[in-house]
Amino acid sequence: MGIKVKRFNKAGELYWLLGVLFISLGVCLCKKADLGVSMIAAPAFIIYDAIKELVPFFTVGVVEYIVQAFFVALLCVVVFKVKVKYLLSILVGVIYGYVLDMWLLIFKDVYINEVWARYLMLIVGDAVTAIGVACFFRTYLPIQSYDIFVKDVALRYNLNINKFKLIYDFSLLTVSVVLAFSLFGDVKTFDWTQIYKMSYHNLGLGTLITTIINSPFIFVAGKLLDKLLGQEPIFIKAKAFLDRG
After folding, report:
1. How many other C-beta atoms are found inside a 10 Å radius of the C-beta of residue 188?
2. Residues 179, 47 contacting (CB under 8 angstroms)
3. CB within 8 A of 20, min separation 6: which ones?
4. pTM for the full model?
5. Is the pLDDT at 2 greater than 70, yes or no?
6. Pairwise CA distance, residues 193 & 28, whole Å
7. Do the beta carbons of residue 78 and residue 153 sit within 8 Å?
8. Interatomic CA distance for residues 146 and 129, integer angstroms
């Protein structure tokens, strides 16, 4: 006889909170694995790595929300609309950036030498991130620009969100590779035979693995979340306002 779990339906706002916490934690875990961060997080980490000596007061989180602001502008161009929730997603990017910095500070002194354990941490980080993204796909509140880009472009052009997410992921992987190869001058001196156990400016085998498994992980996480939580809002008027905007 199976155990029945009561579904909590009014999780529209809870999904947002879980999204911020889980995505930032997952990215932090992938970073600590040092096998390459996800293709989504890579541009901000690569840019930070390139400019950290020039602007030492910048953190990864600061670069992250600047990059996210760029994605908001790009989204407005692609969907031919400027919505209130798009502008608010810039604020979400700022919140996410500081939460990411918080997790990085908490895990600052965590180091794992064994390669197998680092791959395990990478997979756990990917799974945690996927739960967070699945949460963002289910909230009506403004979400960080990477995810609202996928969500609203898929809606605007009637695309399958999971298939479009996969295309989006590989596009960002390409952008990340171009950034890493163009911003640093040590491409030829880096020992590429060791790429399976170390990253090149936050790019590595782990980045490719994440790109491949990210969409399936999000799909599975979404199915599990739908069994536990509904998407109804507690603040109905807030949802109506954001839906209009």
Report:
1. 6
2. yes
3. 92, 95, 96, 99, 132, 144
4. 0.88
5. no
6. 25
7. yes
8. 13
Instruction: Give residue 1's pLDDT band: very low, low, confident or very high (50, 70, 90).
Output: very low
The residue assigned the tokens 């739960």 is: 131
In the chain, the amino acid numbered 174 is T
117: Cβ–Cβ under 8 A, 6 or more apart, which residues? none
